[in-house]
């Protein structure tokens, strides 16, 4: 029962903690890491508020120490997926009709719990299982997740306030109903915050969810489940299943009540899911919403007016943080020949300082890539560049998987703008640079725009306002998140809503009202105060 138009607390970005030597947050985090690293966690599935253990388990091993087992997670067979769907649907009646303030309170509470008692645990789990350094864990697993919860609550109320005009004698109202059925959230390994946000955004809007986390994020997914539970999320609203993605997806997409897909992951998988939904379309009671944020081949383009040190820094940070495993990570750069030597000099100097190793040692900037499949793929492309006369590996190029999946930050110089590593998403610490003649800058923008199927993020660097304007126009469809004189990564919720088009996704901008709208189905209510009794219009005479 609502007895007031309530305002929610103004959303503010969670301040990023520094973790400087000697700081209390550093001590707490490293102690938590140590304790979690040396214990064994048993991660159940989570269906209707019950911890479900099937005994059919897979080991969880840190990418930087792949022989060390930190726990295991339980996987589903088809019956568990069916139960997750039916219990979600059973929870729907209460959840979809509870007042929005109750839902808002749960996620606002989750934000505060994460800012406080859950922070070290969420960050440590992310460092261990996804091999993120202290800073990368903090900006993802703590700050971005907190921001998603806080800002989405505010955006929800903004949406609710958007109401139609009413002519005299009538009252028009718009009601933002949750979708009829359930939402299927499939999440990637690389951001703990995305893993939480995909099910949470739909749930906040009153939907019930079946959530399939990535196998490589199960460790921190468990902390998210604990967080939701402690924040008061009722049983059955978000149900978590692990295991064979094809079996789980086939089961979910066969349900007539499937009403929306909230996906983040690779382009190929998303296109296959879209196709499968299309094939099943006659099965569904409603047209499913399809939201997917997918791959990228994100660019840095520099003009000869750019400062070479700034260009090099944008590359070092943009390409190598979190081992290049951000969907926004720069992986192709176009540099004019007149400034290349200087850029290269800075790049060599900066990358030579990057230490690589376990995230337990905070001085390591680079940690391991996520798993052996990824390691082998990236190594294969590095070898290809080493062997090809159209390319030269000028920085890094070494890799070693004896202890962890470590790949040196690598820069490839490509003679052709369509060399394979200029166009293929590798999702690792590999940057390919193409040098263009200064006078050809306009043609080089065309290359940026047309060389790949993606359009996620991109950055241009120049000090010339005419060039900035022209490049921004020439690249208007080349990136959903476009940066001027910066690196193309590091979007902050509430400031730079994130997503791209073309093969990079549906561009529904995670962390925005636009995204939340996709999880609603609007009902327009028109009420007439004095109902007509004469069917004749004046023109009938
Ligand atoms: P992935 O596509 O391998 O896996 C993503 C999810 O899909 C996982 O949960 C996985 O188990 C599941 N999956 C895999 N095959 C499936 C299938 N056949 N049917 C159903 N589900 C299936 O991606 P990843 O390696 O976890 O993440 C990296 C990818 O995600 C990169 O391509 C990256 O660009 C993209 N990404 C994009 C964004 C964005 O906002 N655009 C953000 C993060 C990651």
How would you describe the overall organization of this protein?
This protein is α/β, with parallel strands linked by helices and 541 residues long. The protein has 16 helices and 23 strands. The chain has two domains: 24-294 and 505-525, Aldehyde Dehydrogenase, Chain A, domain 1 (3-Layer(aba) Sandwich), CATH 3.40.605.10; 298-484, Aldehyde Dehydrogenase, Chain A, domain 2, CATH 3.40.309.10. The chain has a seven-stranded mixed sheet, sandwiched between helices. Strands 9-8-7-10-11 form a five-stranded parallel sheet, with helices on both faces. Helix 10 (308-320) links the parallel strand 12 and strand 13 (330-336). Nicotinamide-adenine-dinucleotide binds at residues 186-191, 194, 212, 214-215, 245-246, 249, 264-266, 269, 272, 293-296, 327, 425, 427, 456, 498-499, 504-505.
Main sheet: strands, sense, barrel: 7 strands, mixed
Shape field: globular
What distance separates the N and C termini?
A: 49 Å
Cα Rg: 25 Å
CATH superfamily membership of the largest domain, which one? Aldehyde Dehydrogenase, Chain A, domain 1
Helix content: 25-40%
CATH fold group of the largest domain: Aldehyde Dehydrogenase, Chain A, domain 1
Q: Strand pairing plus helix content: what structural class?
A: alpha/beta
Number of strands: 23
The CATH class of the largest domain is Alpha Beta
Number of domains: 2
Question: Which architecture name of the largest domain does CATH use?
Answer: 3-Layer(aba) Sandwich
Bound molecules: nicotinamide-adenine-dinucleotide
Question: Strand order within the widest sheet?
Answer: 14-17-18-13-12-20-21
How much of the residues is beta strand, in percent?
Answer: 15-25%
Helical element count?
16
**Residue-averaged pLDDT, rounded?**
98
Low-confidence stretches: none
């Amino acid at each position: 029962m609502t007895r007031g138009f309530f305002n929610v607390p103004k959303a503010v970005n969670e301040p990023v903690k520094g973790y400087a030597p000697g700081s209390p947050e550093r001590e707490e985090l490293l102690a938590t890491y140590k304790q979690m690293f040396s214990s064994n966690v048993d991660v159940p599935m989570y269906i209707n508020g019950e911890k479900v253990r099937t005994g059919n388990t897979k080991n969880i091993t840190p990418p930087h120490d792949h022989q060390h087992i930190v726990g295991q997670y339980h996987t589903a067979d088809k019956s568990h997926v069916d139960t997750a769907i039916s219990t979600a649907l059973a929870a729907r009646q209460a959840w979809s009709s509870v007042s929005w303030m109750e839902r808002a309170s749960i996620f606002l509470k989750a934000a505060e719990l994460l800012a406080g008692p859950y922070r070290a645990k969420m960050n440590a789990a992310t460092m261990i299982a996804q091999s993120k350094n202290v800073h990368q864990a903090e900006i993802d697993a703590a700050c971005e997740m907190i921001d998603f919860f806080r800002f989405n609550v505010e955006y929800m109320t903004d949406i609710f306030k958007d109401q139609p005009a009413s002519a005299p004698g009538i009252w028009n109202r718009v009601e933002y109903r949750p979708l009829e059925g359930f939402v299927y959230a499939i999440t990637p390994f690389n951001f703990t915050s995305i893993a939480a946000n995909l099910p949470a955004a739909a749930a906040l809007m009153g939907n019930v969810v079946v959530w399939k986390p990535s196998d490589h994020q199960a460790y921190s997914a468990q902390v998210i489940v604990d967080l939701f539970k402690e924040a008061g999320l009722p049983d059955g609203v978000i149900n978590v299943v692990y295991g064979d993605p094809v079996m789980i997806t086939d089961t979910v997409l066969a349900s007539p009540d499937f009403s929306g897909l909230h996906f983040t992951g690779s382009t190929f998988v998303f296109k296959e899911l879209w196709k499968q939904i299309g094939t099943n379309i006659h099965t569904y009671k409603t047209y499913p919403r399809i939201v997917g944020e997918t791959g990228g081949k994100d660019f840095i383009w520099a003009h000869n007016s750019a400062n070479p040190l700034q260009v090099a820094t944008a590359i070092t940070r943009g390409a190598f943080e979190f081992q290049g495993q951000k969907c926004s990570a720069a992986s192709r750069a176009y540099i004019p020949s007149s400034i290349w030597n200087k850029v290269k000099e800075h790049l060599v100097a900066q990358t030579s300082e990057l230490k690589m190793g376990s995230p337990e040692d905070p001085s390591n900037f680079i940690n391991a890539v996520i798993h052996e499949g990824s390691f082998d793929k990236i190594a294969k492309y590095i070898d290809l560049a080493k062997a090809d006369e159209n390319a030269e590996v000028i920085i890094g190029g070494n890799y070693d998987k004896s202890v962890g999946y470590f790949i040196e930050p690598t820069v490839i110089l490509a003679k052709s703008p369509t060399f394979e590593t200029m166009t293929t998403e590798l999702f690792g610490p590999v940057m390919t640079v193409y040098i263009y003649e200064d006078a050809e800058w306009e043609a080089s923008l065309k290359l940026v725009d047309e060389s790949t199927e993606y359009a996620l993020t991109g950055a241009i660097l120049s000090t010339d306002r005419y060039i900035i304007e022209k490049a921004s126009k020439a690249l208007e469809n080349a990136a959903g998140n476009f940066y001027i004189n910066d690196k193309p990564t590091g979007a902050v919720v509430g400031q730079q809503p994130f997503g791209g088009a073309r093969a990079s996704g549906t561009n529904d901008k995670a962390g925005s009202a636009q995204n939340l709208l996709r999880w609603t189905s609007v009902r327009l209510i028109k009420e007439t105060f004095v109902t007509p009794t004469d069917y004749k219009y004046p023109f009938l005479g």
